[in-house]
Amino acid sequence: MSAALPRGLRPRLVVAFVLVAALSALLTAALTFRQARSAILDRTRDTAVEELRRQVDALAPNLPPDPTDGDLRIFASQLDHAAGDGRRTAVSRDGGPLLGTAQGIGTALRAATRGGDTAFAERVASTGTPRLLIGMPVRYEDQGADAGKPSGLVVYAALPLDGERADIATLITAAWAGAVPALALAVVPALFAARGVLRPVRRLRSAAERITSGALDTRLKVVGKDELAALTGTFNTMAATLERDDAELRRMEARAGRFAADVSHELRTPLAAMAAVTDALDEDAHSGALPADTADAVLLVSDETRKLAVMVEDLMEISRFDAGSAVLHPDDVSLRTVIHKTLQLRGWREPEEVVTELPEGDPRLRADPRRLDVVLANLIGNALRHGAPPVTVRAVCAADEVVIEVADRGPGIPEDVLPHVFDRFYKADAARSRSEGSGLGLAIAAENVRLHDGTLTAANLPGGGAVFTVVLPVRRDPEGAL
Q1: CATH number, domain 227-323
Q2: Which of 168, 188, 282, 470 has its CA 20 to 30 A from that of 105?
Q3: Sheet holding 88-93, edge to edge
Q4: pLDDT 10s digits, 29-44
């Protein structure tokens, strides 16, 4: 199972900083080790070649003009004794066998030194122990016409590199000894760097939270000229734009609210007059005093006038909510009485149109009876118009809340419509340009419930039909009664 990556930005920055420091330290240590190792081995090679050349030049003149194998073995032995560093030497004549103590001389080295006058050296570790192998042609003495020319003799030396290996091991240990504390110390600047980066980020988050809570005048001080400073400047520009747009929207909303309220108020007087006239004409239309065509026209005008009056009243009510002038007048009321009064005022019959399921006794609650009647009337009327009777009104009383459910037996509410049922003037079917209601009933019901600090929700029943649920907190008067 792989280890979980750190989720916070701070640990990520610290880990990234430490990883970069570790990579840099390891890369530096690797390059330093490589250079130091090459320097140690090159110095050892150059020193060994120079020392062997010096010894060969010193002992070669003692050889007879036509040395025997025995002479060559003695020559190799003398070179071994002259070295004193564990070197083993052998001599070959004209590519013949090696005479002496040196072993493991490869064919490549022997081929490179045959017939030439240049020394060659190579490092090998075929037996697990590193060694330096040197092949050095022997030149004639510095006299005569052949001075300085190859003599046909080649000296081969095998020098152990145990000391150099120990030095390189010490170098590796020193590199690790320096890298580990460096990595540990890298955490300190990493923490400071993370703190420096995250401080403006935290300020931006706090400022964003303040703007989310409604403080659109929040601004941040721009420090520096880096990317975070540019981000802070962009944030301030965004906040200023939001504040300006919010102020403009509030002004437009206030003007729209005042317009709706003014229009509704101005329409009330002529509508009242129209309603009085249409009521009188309704009586003539129903009594047969008017011709049939005229009676139908009168009834149509009367019906549309009543709808317009309802819409005007609803608009005025919504305007009060928008203006914050809606006032709650709570009273100690009987839940049973409020529900039955709502049904009687609208002429809804029990149990043909509405079925009530109320708790035993006479549960009482503290609420505004007029607004509670508006809520129930809108919910029941909506269920009767769009559902199928009978509509069930169920109430449950608990210690701290009262739950009222209004359920119908219709097809239910489409899932894409559910989130919008409390929107003003929302119509599920765009083709239905007109409806019996004003399109504000459910919105007004939701506002009235909210004024009681309650909640109103809509859902579909598993067996079909829609259900609206009102949850009202139990209010108590100063004497402790419900």
Answers
A1: 1.10.287.130
A2: 168
A3: 99-100, 88-93, 150-160, 131-139, 120-124
A4: 777 778 877 888 888 8
